[in-house]
Structures are given as structure tokens and as C-alpha cells.
Amino acid sequence: MTRLPMLIVLVSFATAAPSSATVPIAAADPSAPPKTLPPAPEHDLVARVCTGCHVPELVTARRHTSEEWDDIIAKMVDHGARADDAEQDQILAYLARFYGKPTGQ
Ligand code: HEC
Q1: pTM of the entire predicted model
Q2: I want to staple 100 with a disulfide (CB 3.0 to 4.6 A). Which of 3, 14, 36, 96 is the partner?
Q3: What is the CATH number of the domain that holds 38?
Q4: Which atom of ligand 1 is nearest to the CA of 79?
Q5: Is 95 domain-assigned?
Q6: pLDDT tens for each residue of 50-89
Q7: Ligand 1, residues 44, 51, 54: which to mutate, most atoms within 8 A of Cβ?
Q8: Given pLDDT bands bounded at 50, 70 and 90, which one contains residue 104?
Q9: SS (H, E, C) 67-93
């Protein structure tokens, strides 16, 4: 029974910090998207078009499928994002490359 005191310490720690305990797990997730926009030929375009209204963290927070990014870009253009069709294609390619996820996940 020498291990019991340690077990009690672990259990009380887990009960004391239920929400903050999930943060390190999320940060260590290898599928977590990059927090800042990675360098690429399209970087400056994405940074210019997609950070005009909100912080880049809104863009980098979550992975999406190409279809979802396509919808989001179209919605942002409706909001007033200024990018022509060719630029929207480049933004989609960039987001799908660095912030994509396989369809159906
Ligand atoms: C003209 C202003 C504007 C620009 C420019 C803009 N956004 Fe947004 N964005 C918004 C607003 C307003 C919201 C919150 C309302 C909503 O979700 O529609 C938002 C929310 C978001 C969200 C979170 C909501 C969701 O639907 O997932 C993402 C992701 C996003 N924007 C990505 C982008 C990307 C990528 C670009 C560049 C193509 C961009 N934004 C450019 C106005 C803008």
C-alpha cells in the first residue's frame, strides 16, 4: 500500500484543475495547425487579404477541408475581403496546404 498516497495526490490534482489540464495536450497535438502563417509564395497575399478585419489567429485557429476553406473565403469576400478570383485560388491553395485536413474528418 505504499503507492496509495501518491495516487491520492494525482486524483486531487486532476480534480483541482480540470480545464487547464487540457491545454498542454492540445499544444502537443502534432496535427495542431501552425499558430502563425508559414512562409510561402502566397504568404504576403494571405496576410494582406485575411488580416484586414480580424486577427490572423482567427485564420490559423482551425484546420478545414479545401471545400470548407473555399466556403470561408467566399464568405469573407461577401464580408468585403478584397481578392480577385486568381488571388482567391492562391489563398485557397495556401490554406489547404498549411491548414487543410482530409475530407470526412
Ligand atoms: C472584410 C472583413 C474580413 C476580411 C477581409 C476577412 N474576414 Fe474572416 N471574418 C470576418 C468576419 C466579420 C468574421 C466573423 C463572422 C463570420 O464568421 O462570418 C470572420 C470570421 C472568420 C473565420 C472564423 C469563422 C468561420 O467561419 O470559420 C475564419 C476562419 C476567417 N474569418 C478566415 C478568413 C480568411 C481566410 C480571410 C482571407 C481570405 C478572411 N477571413 C478575411 C471578416 C473578414
Answers
A1: 0.79
A2: 96
A3: 1.10.760.10
A4: 1
A5: yes
A6: 999 999 999 999 999 999 999 999 999 999 999 999 999 9
A7: 54
A8: low
A9: HHHHHHHHHHHHHCCCCCHHHHHHHHH
